Structures
1.
Amino acid sequence: MPAARFVEQLNTQIGHEFAAHQQYVACAVHYDLLTMPQMAAFFYRQAVEERDHAMMMVQYLVDCDEPVTIPSVPAPQSKFGDVVEPIRIALEQERRVADQINTLTAIAREENDFASDQFMQWFIKEQVEEIATMSDLLTVATRASHDIEAIEDYVAREQSGQPGDPTAPPIAGDDG
Ligand SMILES: [Fe+2]
Ligand SMILES: [Fe+2]
């Protein structure tokens, strides 16, 4: 049975993951309106991943018979000054989420909640990957901020989507 403190904090995290979903949809739409289909598709995919993270957390709480409260989320930033700003915001968001994931793991450990500690391990690895992806993209986009086709080419070549991760926790409502 998960520790009460962990359950409360995981419910909060579900809101952060849905907020990340909304932020990435806003980033995707920004690029879609600039007719940058590769960047738009990249952020639409990132958005779905964030939604999946939220639903993995929902599934964990349901599996543990713990209460789940789906929170409202603050509106994302929808106006951006250029092609680089959404990526800068995305990287900040991923770093913030990594801190939140670490805090959740620390709570599980403090409470000797070993199952929750193990549940968090996949998210720790995921944050390392997402920070690396956004950091690389920020470097490329900053370098090529006046050559959007170069950014599009990079995303098409290096970030065209990976196959599903078989080690990922189950996603609530996913019948696939
Ligand atoms: Fe996430
Ligand atoms: Fe993320």
2.
Amino acid sequence: MKTSSFRVVSLPSEIADAARRAVKTGAVDHALITVDSPESSPCRHCLHWAQPGERVILFPYSSIPSGHPYSETGPIFVHADNCPRYNATNEYPADFRNGRVFRAYDSNYNIIDAQVVDGAEPEVVIESLFENPETALMDVRSMTRGCFTFRVQRA
Ligand SMILES: [Zn+2]
């Protein structure tokens, strides 16, 4: 099977760091939470589930910037303490192989396709969505709550 080269784009470190600063100044839209159950709070920076007892920050993030019909802002978590940014080519994050929906966007941020990954191989779904030359990127989201998890781009 031919596999398209893809790059996993996690939340930029500048945004994670800004959230860590904002929560310290008491920003009302940044909540500091201690995780109490496993697989409840995915950190968008290191792309791992935060473990029970770890602290995370919950804040709104514009996954699709304003000025587009599909502009979207929604809640995400990052670890409250520093964590390494996930940065990999052709390596799908192991913690999020199930329960995700993939939304394919064109270069103007219009949604042009979507597929659910739950039990399927995410690499196969990526391959299939990138077969359309119009697909510029895809956003991977929670299937149940809809929250943005990470982005996939062509490598
Ligand atoms: Zn993290």
3.
Amino acid sequence: MMTRRKSTVLLSALALGWGALAVVGCGGGEKGAGDNAAAAAPASGDNAASEAPAAAAAASGPTGTATVAGAVTYDGAVPNLKPVSMSADPTCASKHSGPVPSDVLALGANKELGNVFVYVKEGLPDGQWTPPSTAATIDQNGCLYHPHVVGVMVGQKLTFLNSDGLLHNVHALPQVNQEFNIAMPAERKEAEHQFDQAEGMFHVKCDVHPWMTAYVGVLKHPFFAVSGADGKFSIANLPAGTYTIEAWHEKLGTQEQQVTVADGGTAEVSFTFKRPAA
Ligand SMILES: [Cu+2]
């Protein structure tokens, strides 16, 4: 822990220099460095951006005032997913008053698709972003993970809560980072973990309750979001630029789109996931 703290401080110090470096050193790359816009902060929308305690605002790599936002929808017949059966653990079952819907496909009334991880895959200027001091959180509640899909930055704390007050374990199966398995007995309310390296979405499961599944992605930058129950997502505080945005769904695969966004602007990107052929 001590060494990690030290390295975080060191990174912060290095990162302070990156703003200037990004403008000077990366002049040949993306046009319109976001750092200028961040310093000038002229328009109305900037107040919110500069005060928001969001991940991007806490980061010290290149940021800006551009936003990529949109919605994710599902196209196709809605599969008849079986409710989660918790009969193997009556304590879990007793935490629900009725059938527990599957969390594999989070669909709204108009096929809005939640739990899609959306992030900037390519196009960011070089930089070193400091993770936010606030932890990302996954709660074990009702013998399900809340939220089901989570993004964290390299070095950011990911806290696992045990609101259930019963035995779980958190078994993460990354490929690049170290696998880990944390026992969460009834009296253990909290555990935390940090990841050393960026890595795409990987599985987190509970060996006690095989239906419990979450997905975690680790990024070196703060430009990611998870679509909400309304299918919407927003990635703010981006430097102006042209980006490849990827959207990932656990069953429906990935999609990419290119988008160009200017300082102070919002570029709309929408994704439609079709049900794969059976
Ligand atoms: Cu469990």
